[in-house]
């Protein structure tokens, strides 16, 4: 029953995210959406949020239970980001962007850490979680910086902001890895 509720929660998160993406893509002139690549997000985010359910349906359906917790963890960061834009939190609260980089990477990499096979051992799973978290933070930061550098006003702060974002993403993935390591150790005890 908990798995069904969790899976339903992930679909509710998808629906809310999609509604906010449509709002942002259809109102790019609103100040909270201006320059935030909402049209690109409106394409990329739904595709990313469908990757797990479609992949499971095509390859695992009937053989393994639906990974509802991972699904929810993977969809929540997209809602956090789009809601942050819709509510103008990125521009209105100075620390919101930093909190998002930490929290969203913790959520995303929590899903990864849960999925990694137990036979790897706790420290190997932790290392893979942090390594993937750091790599994805680097890729995201590089893409974000190249977009930011195209606009002169953000050029002055783009480099230091990106380094901070990558550090926070890596720390979020470390937290996720440590939490999953601890939960698995507690389950074995």
UniProtKB/TrEMBL annotation:
Keywords: Membrane, Transmembrane, Transmembrane helix
Record protein name field: VanZ-like domain-containing protein
TM ranges: 40-59, 102-119, 163-183
């Amino acid at each position: 029953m908990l798995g069904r509720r969790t899976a339903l929660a992930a679909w509710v998160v998808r629906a809310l995210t999609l509604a906010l993406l449509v709002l942002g893509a259809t109102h790019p002139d609103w100040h909270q959406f201006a320059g935030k690549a909402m049209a690109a997000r409106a394409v990329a985010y739904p595709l990313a949020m469908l990757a797990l359910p479609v992949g499971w349906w095509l390859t695992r359906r009937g053989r393994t239970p639906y990974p509802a917790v991972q699904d929810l963890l993977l969809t929540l960061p997209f809602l956090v980001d789009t809601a942050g834009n819709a509510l103008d939190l990125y521009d209105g609260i100075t620390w919101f962007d930093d909190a998002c980089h930490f929290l969203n990477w913790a959520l995303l990499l929590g899903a990864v850490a849960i999925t990694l096979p137990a036979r790897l051992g706790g420290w190997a799973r932790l290392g893979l979680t942090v390594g993937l978290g750091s790599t994805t933070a680097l890729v995201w930061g590089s893409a974000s910086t190249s977009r930011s550098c195209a606009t002169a006003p953000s050029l002055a702060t783009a480099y230091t902001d990106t380094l901070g974002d990558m550090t926070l993403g890596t720390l979020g993935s470390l937290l996720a890895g440590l939490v999953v390591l601890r939960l698995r150790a507690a389950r074995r005890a």
